[in-house]
Write a structure and sequence with these properties.
Layout (H helix, E strand, L loop, with lengths): L12 E6 L2 E7 H9 L20 H24 L6 H19 L1 H4 L5 H22 L1 H8 L2 H12 L1 H7 L5
Antiparallel strand pairs: 1-2
C-alpha cells in the first residue's frame, strides 16, 4: 500500500480496547502516516482518556493576549463612556475563550487528527458555538470605541475600507 508521501505502508491491525471489549481497530497505516507528518500519535481512545489534554504554547499565548486586549478595552470603555460595558458581552467573550480552549487543547484537540468524530466536534465547537459567542461579545465595537489616537484612526479606516467590507462579511452567506 502506498501512502500520501509515496512511502510503502503495510496495514497491521492494532486492537483498541475499552473496558475489556474490542471496540475498534486502528491500522499501522494511520499511525505511520501520523508519525510521518511530525505529529505524535495519542494513545488509543478509551473513556479513561476523557480528560486528555495537549497544550500548545501558541494557542495559549493567543488566548491570553485576546483576554488581555478585551479586558483592557472594557476598562477603557468604562472610563470613557457614560454607560458601562455589558456584563453579558464580557461573559460571552469569556465563554468563547473557554470553548476555543476546550476545542483546541482538550479531548477534541488531542484526537482531532486521529478520530473523525473528534475533528467534527472541534469544528462544531469553533464554528457554531465559539463564533456566535464572539459575535455576541462585540469585540469590534469595543475596539472601535476604545483604541486611542493614530491606532484607532487607522483601525477605523481599515474597517470602513473595501478590504474591511470583504473581511467583515461572510462571502458565502
Amino acid at each position: 500500500m502506498i501512502g500520501a508521501r509515496g512511502q510503502a505502508y503495510r496495514p497491521v491491525p492494532v486492537p483498541v480496547r475499552a473496558g475489556g471489549k474490542l471496540v475498534a481497530v486502528l491500522t499501522a497505516i494511520e499511525m505511520q502516516m501520523r508519525m510521518s507528518d511530525g505529529m505524535s500519535m495519542p494513545a488509543p481512545f478509551s473513556w479513561t482518556h476523557l480528560y486528555a489534554t495537549r497544550m500548545s504554547w501558541s494557542i495559549n499565548l493567543a488566548l491570553v493576549l485576546a483576554v488581555i486586549a478585551y479586558v483592557a478595552g472594557v476598562r477603557s470603555w468604562n472610563r470613557r463612556q457614560p454607560t458601562t460595558w455589558s456584563a453579558k458581552r464580557s461573559l460571552a467573550f469569556a465563554f468563547a475563550i473557554v470553548i476555543v480552549g476546550i476545542a483546541t487543547e482538550a479531548l477534541p484537540g488531542v484526537y482531532d487528527m486521529t478520530l473523525f468524530s473528534a475533528h467534527m466536534v472541534q469544528h462544531l465547537l469553533l464554528i457554531m458555538v465559539a463564533a456566535g459567542l464572539f459575535a455576541m461579545a462585540a469585540p469590534l465595537e469595543l475596539a472601535l470605541a476604545t483604541l486611542p489616537g493614530a491606532i484607532g484612526r487607522g483601525f477605523h479606516r481599515l474597517v470602513d475600507s473595501k478590504l474591511g467590507e470583504v473581511i467583515g462579511r461572510a462571502l458565502g452567506a
